Amino acid sequence: MGSNMAENHPVAFQWVMEAKERGAEIVHVDPRFTRTSAVADAFVPIRPGTDIAFLGGLIRYVLAQEADLREYVVAYTNASHIIAEGVELPDDAAGYFSGWDPESGYDSTTWRYEGDAPDAHAAAGDRHNRVEGDDPHRGATADDAEEGGQAFEGGSIRNVNAIETDPTLQHPRCVYQLLTRHYARYTPDVVADTCGITEEQFLTVARSLCENSGRERTSAFVYSVGWTQHSVGVQYIRAASILQLLLGNIGRPGGGILALRGHASIQGSTDIPTLYDLLPGYLPMPSAGDHDTLDDYERRTTAAKGYWSQGRSFLVSLLRAWWGEHALERDDLGFGYLPRITGDHSVYPTTIDMFTGKVKGYMLFGQNPAVGSANSRLHRLAYASLEWLVVRDLSMIESATFWKDGPEVESGELVPEDVGTEVFFLPAAAHVEKDGTFTNTQRLLQWHHAAVEPAGDARSDLWFAYHLGVRIRTKLLARAGGTPAERDLPLHHLTWDYPTHGPHGEPSADAVLREINGYDADGRPLATFNDLEADGSTSCGCWIYAGAYADGINQTARRTAWTEMGPAAKEWGWAWPNDRRMLYNRASADPAGAPWSDRKRYVWWDEEAERWTGFDTPDFAPTMRPDHQAPADATGVGALNGDDPFLMQADGKAWLWAPAGLLDGPLPMHLEPVESPVDNLLHPVRSNPLAELLPHEHNPHHPVGDAPGADAYPLVSTSYRIAEHHTAGGMSRFGTRLAELAREMFVEVHPALAAERGLVHGGWATIISARSAIEARVMITERIAPLRVGGRAIHQVGLPYHWGPNGTASGDAANDLYAIAMDPNVHIQEVKGTTCDIVAGRRPRDAGLRRLVARHATEPEAVRHERRLTAARDGGR
Amino acid sequence: MTHSSHDSDLLNHPGGPVQGSAGTRFGFFTDTSVCIGCKACEVACKEWNQVPAREESGFTGHSMDNTGALGADSWRHVAFIEQPAGHVPASGGAGVDGDAEVSGRVGLEWFGEDPGLPPGAHGSEEQREVPNFGGAELAAPGVTDFRWLMSSDVCKHCTEAACLEVCPTGAIFYTEFSTVVVQDEVCNGCGYCVTACPYGVIERRSPGQHGGGGAFKCTMCYDRMRGEQQPACAQACPTDSIQFGPLDELRARAEVRAEDLIAAGVPGVQLYGADPDSGVGGNGAFFLLLDDPEVYGLPPDPVTPTRNLRQIWGSAGAAALGLAAAVAVAFATGGRR
Amino acid sequence: MSTAHAAPTAGPTGAAGGTEQRVYTDADGTTIAVPTYHGRPVIKEPAWTWEVPWYLFAGGMAGASSVLVLGAKLAGHHELADRARWVAAAGVAVSPPLLIADLGRPTRFLNMLRVFKPTSVMSVGSWILASYSGVAGAASGLRALDRLPPLQDACDVVAAGLGAGMTVYTGALVADTSIPVWHEARRHLPPLFAASGLAAAGAAATLVTSPEGSRPARRAAVLGAALELTVDTAMRRHLGPIGEVYGREEAGRFHRAARAVTTTGAALVAVGGGRRRGVTVAGSALLLAGSVCTRWAVYRAGFQSARDPVATLGPQRARLVRGERTRARS
Prior knowledge:
The complex is a heterotrimer of chains A (about 900), B (about 325) and C (about 325). Chain A is of the alpha/beta class. Chain A is about 25% helix and about 10% strand. Chain A has 24 helices and 28 strands. The radius of gyration of chain B is 23 Å and the shape is globular. The termini of chain B are far apart. With about 325 residues, chain B is α+β, with helices and mostly antiparallel strands. Chain B is about 20% helix and about 15% strand. A two-stranded antiparallel sheet of chain C has the order 1-2. Chain C contains ten helices and two strands; from the N terminus they run ββαααααααααα. In chain C, helix 1 runs antiparallel to helix 4 (about 150-175), helix 1 (about 50-75) crosses helix 9 and helix 3 runs antiparallel to helix 4 (about 150-175). Chain C is globular, with a radius of gyration of 22 Å. Chains in contact: A-B, A-C, B-C. Chains B and C meet through strand 2, helix 2, helix 3, helix 4 and strand 6 of B and strand 1, strand 2, helix 1, helix 3 and helix 4 of C.
């Protein structure tokens, strides 16, 4: 669901086809009939933005049929946990969970567990930052910052052993019963009507899923940005997690929820993050005011039970890796050297801050927002307000040339002479021109060796970062007159001593990986993060990567042939944490430690040997008996019981109900996209009230429902990628091999819509939103079906987003059409299931473009009519 | 062959011909039932063989096919066919090589119907039914399903290769692997092979391009095979739709695969080019199709033109005699004035 | 509107679909709907360019002229023999350049003589052209120098033989291809080209020979024209729907012109005879034009036939429908 795996992950899709050959049933639930649907056993054309309704319906079906793997659910999830008095579900409270305040959003304390464990907090890496004033809908207020305040992913719960449970799952406030009540209204007929499918299609999937789950069989979900890029993106994934946990499909072979990443090493870029609010290994970036001292930080971020209790040693080892001996000389081992977050510095608010001059300079590494980010027109205009912009890329991408030949220059909105931005374009080396690792979606690190020297001035990102650091330090030293200024110490004290080689002084990526892996007190490479200490004696650049260089060997470079390995392929690359190929694999055995079934065995308890054995590294101490009960007063890792598979969770259990950590509810509920042509058929609340809309003159949102002007944008648009191109085109639009496979931007429409608007196959169409208008060649195809919702047909418009004005395959950028509207938890943009309109013919090249957009907003029918007539006259071309 | 194991003693681990396998006939089995249309074969082929960019590569509107056809600058070509619900493959899932017993019904079910789209596309207000994608029933795609067929086409490396037989310079030859290859340094660009190929594969490259003027087509990566590597397209194919190996082994594998799919109720299944008993003596590169060959742009009963050489020379000889006779007649009658 | 070209019931102009179908009715009445891949051709158009039809004409005229030379010598028409020999020489002079100019890599023309391949009509033809142009050239040369009469006679004899081959092999050349309108006419094209060559040779000789001496040439011209028209009619009847390209586009125009001009030319030559020189000259000129048009009609028809997927697919599917699938060589 929400993935076109065959087209966008064709290499990984070989395994899906392999599974199909072995009898697996492939079901594809997606708005469009894609190359994935073409080889699937079943295809369900779902309306974009309704997957939670679909998944909620499946959850209800599983509960109603009692098809859940009960023993698993009771033992491994928090289904039996009782939620404190006073919790309310949307059905009880006019569409909101308890704790709703229109001003400040949700107060999650009402979602907590019953018993003497008053507050549980989780923060998925503390993603909710207070921003002074600018947005009331931001979660945690300073009050959360008390004991057990924001915590790591998995949460902090005091007195975990005091949680009240009801293993019979009968208690009206136990999670299982709350689930049942919450999803009771997600009946097949309502789901079918919401999703624009038939009940039979829904029930077929439901039956198949249940038939293929249980002790003997497992089912897996695959998703991509079709799930994440929504204003309720996080809750999409939560919904699937709940479903898979009920069916016992997590932590077991053939199960799980597989997130397919957008391109190489996106996983790596969150492990060792490019995200502003995370430190390596998902440690929260300290916030000003809350985390002034290391003790504050530990007190407010670490968990009482499970591996997050080791937070202090993870962070201290990181400080030691970054500042080496200097860390030991500083208070809090150099904790003070870390920068502090003062607000939301995620990409979209930062971009909008460029208009006001709050952001003066910007660096783009391998990213092309002028084509690839929602409302790319806003990004181009914002960059025109910068003082300087650094672009490092393989090709001369639109983000570097917007000022001289972008669409706004064409339309007269930007005049090159007047754009003050100083743009520095620095050619980047490709992956074949540098050593390093890719970390893929299954947390697998794979080393790649440089095959050739980068051509011309092209350099690796590592080269750029290293030599930039060296030069900055030299300049600072000179400015300070030879003796380091106090304020510059964090830079001067950084361990910045990587050996370099080759004609360009390329830093050693191998040395960087060694530093990330870390060393013990005696300077030996670490074998596991379990050896990390909080006293500064150990160093580790990213605790989850500890072991990647175990025994001084680059484990990520292992390349044993698949024919010579077991089913877990343990000798290919290296997977974090501790080379585990499947997380939470304790759940692959029943509470007693025996495999759920022989054909699904993976890791199990060997009574004779008194230890866990199997195909993979056990997720926990290999000698811990399955029936081990931690002493009541135990804390941290020691508090984990033998049947606590989800050892990153503060209670060792998987969270069907999230007692904390999410801003928009403890359970997923269907909410329409911010720009949806229909009302919410399931709840009185239309769309996510906490969605971040970033109101701005260049970021208008479409009116919805009965609001005037809503009729201007009656079509559902969904953006996507095709097999022929890569993301914003930097790697595919500038050569010939890939570019010639799909040279021109096109738009997919159904014959009926084409007939309605006078579109001609192979001709031109203009797609219009309140943000902009773009043109594309018309692809009339039945693959993009109109959806019947609430009795009426709703047409879809399919927009691949690869193109921009530059390169050998150029065209308009689909992202010009989209507004910025974001999920409150992780700030991801919603570019699926929003609205637009389409008319025949090409768009104006000049100032007429803005006039068209403006006029269409007020008198859409007239515009459509004129375009139809013109098209009928000149044949749409 | 990317991931699935092959049981052939004649292939090494990377899937190339082992040493000493010269003399064995190697080929391609393209199983279109697992093709996902990713075009990795097209790109890998062009990269390895340094095939220049096509001169025309705009938007064709032919589904996702912007390559169009095989030619001098495209040695692999992935075809895309969108079939709306209700389409009935003529061969109805029986038969191999478009055989006669299933072909009696050819087209009759289709006659007058509109498999394409849409009468209203030129401006009428006519609304069409929402297409029935079917497939909700978990079964092999039935005839009522919307189907999107994809197939990676390539030079057939015929047993009786017309291009080779008509080549006046001997530039086209059979390799030790019984594949058909053009020696570029011999070819003088007469273009005769272009008119001879019954599949429209080989083509003369435009002047100006690298190697312009000469005839080009798939070599089954002759250089890679000699280096004990499998052809680039087969190596790149993620789903093993393109399988490389000893031809007889591939044919046996294909028979089994076809029977399995037919048993599973997949409509239109047929092997194409696998049967040596044909007008070209069978192909070194053959296919498992899910519809009749014509639907993929393949000739259903191709014939090597040189088969009729005797007729042709016979008629030429007769014509020569006729010419002499006519001249004789012209002089025979009438005197000298 | 020919059935093979019934309007598509759907196709690329309609939408992305793919299976454009057309109705095809075979010569024996078998009617089938032929699916095509987005209406695209199955086979390639010839790579050849304008030089080829002119070569077909020049070579054919030259070859037939050499036969005429021999006939004239045997019949004692020495003037006619001399003039026809010059016509042959002229044709021989332009043929190789035309052929070489058409090559993708003209500098490699000699590779044609690298091998002798009976399976390749072009290989055989290249040897014929090479030897014929040599012999015919020698014949003219020796006659001009008035040396070695016995060798002259020998040259004329050999030239006549090779000339006949020269005239007919071009028909075989285009017949031995996968282009339906050429291959299906494999029995007709060599005689068609022979007749057309004879008409041209006769006409050319008539033009350059005195009325008194050109009588047999006039006869040959008229006879060739008559045969040309007859064979052409038979060919198109045999081709059935495949042959309808001769009624369309360029091939159609050339073909209509060829028939009209040839018919008129033959009539004028017959009427003009030896007395009305002007009429005969006009008729001869028309016959030459007719021969050129015939070659161009056949040449363009090949392109049009290759472009039409139904011309390729229809007959093949019809064979299958009739249960006449082509089997392996026995």
